[in-house]
Design goal:
The chain is of the alpha/beta class. It has 6 helices and 8 strands, in the order βαβαααβαβββββα.
């Protein structure tokens, strides 16, 4: 029997290599690379986003100098979350997860590691994972499932406005506050560049998270 770690990204992710920092840490901690399965579905969502961006760009009422900030907002949340309500898009993402995990046999086990909106997708997919690890999970901000299907580890950062503790909602959930945030990033604040931690994406490079993934493997 083999135990796999299946990774699911959140909204506005457009790089198939989104989990490289987490995968590097897992391999350093001794996990076999072939048991790590990052699922990428951003390409399914990209065409609709492109059509919205194009419509905004050609609309004479659009303030062109603000288009980049509009696109940033759309990239972050709006188009991806909107599309999840489309049954056809849901079916395509579910099929992508199924195709990506085809090597997981009936006698194998697996842990689902999901980030941001991927947590919502993961809980709605109701996977047969033996454990779930949620990173920057927004379940307190949206209509949430009444229960989670398995043992859950929830990682949040105090500066992440999207994530929060979940143990009060789900008795099978254990909360962990991430304190080893990744490197700071520059963001625009007025006319200045401000150096701040990228709290919502810090989980990928966190050794705390990687060690929990290792711990969730069956003995």
């Amino acid at each position: 029997m083999t135990h796999y770690s299946v990774i699911l990204h959140g909204a506005a992710e457009r790089s198939p290599n989104y989990a490289h920092a987490l995968i590097d840490n897992l391999v350093k901690l001794g996990m076999e690379p072939q048991t790590i399965i990052p699922v990428y579905y951003g390409d399914i969502l990209q065409p609709f986003e492109n059509s919205v961006i194009k419509a905004l760009a050609t609309n004479p009422l659009t303030v062109r100098e603000h288009l980049q900030s509009v696109r940033s907002f759309l990239d972050q949340f709006a188009t991806d979350i909107f599309q999840w309500g489309n049954p056809c898009i849901q079916a395509k993402i579910k099929q992508r997860v199924s195709n990506s995990t085809i090597q997981v046999g009936e006698t194998d086990s697996w842990t689902l590691i999901a980030h941001s909106w991927g947590c919502v997708i993961g809980t709605q997919l109701r996977p047969t994972a033996v454990s779930m690890i949620l990173l920057g999970c927004p379940l307190r901000l949206i209509p949430s499932p009444s229960s989670l299907p398995t043992s859950v580890s929830n990682f949040f950062h105090s500066d992440d406005l999207i994530a929060s503790p979940l143990a009060g909602l789900y008795p099978n959930c254990t909360d962990y506050e991430v304190v080893d945030a990744g490197p700071p990033t520059y963001v625009v604040g007025g006319e200045e560049l401000v150096l701040v931690p990228d709290a919502h994406n810090c989980y990928w490079g966190s050794l705390q998270v990687a060690k929990e993934v290792i711990r969730c493997q069956p003995a």
